[in-house]
Amino acid sequence: MRWLIYLGIVVLGALAFSQAIALMDLDPLPGDILYTSGNLHIHIPVIYSLATSVVVALLFWFLRR
User: Fold this and answer.
1) What are phi and psi of 15, to 5 degrees?
2) What is the DSSP string of 34-65?
3) Digit-coded pLDDT (tens) for 32-62
4) How far is CA 29 from the centre of its chain?
5) Whole-model pTM above 0.70?
6) Which of 6, 11, 33, 35 could link 44 by a cystine bridge, Cβ 3.0 to 4.6 Å?
7) What sign results for the dihedral spanned by CA atoms 44, 45, 50, 53?
């Protein structure tokens, strides 16, 4: 049951983080991979993934203390 609360906190944090990024209009960040060719558009958010990973790791580290 406790993991559901943690999961909810992580999901809400991810939503808040994504909205903050959207408000700052930083899409795409430097380091992201963009490929566009005709009708094909591929966006791989490398920096978003790394930042989210760091935030989640710090959150879990803080919750374990």
Assistant:
1) -65, -45
2) EEEETTEEEEE-HHHHHHHHHHHHHHHHHHH-
3) 888 889 999 888 888 878 888 898 899 888 8
4) 12
5) no
6) 33
7) negative
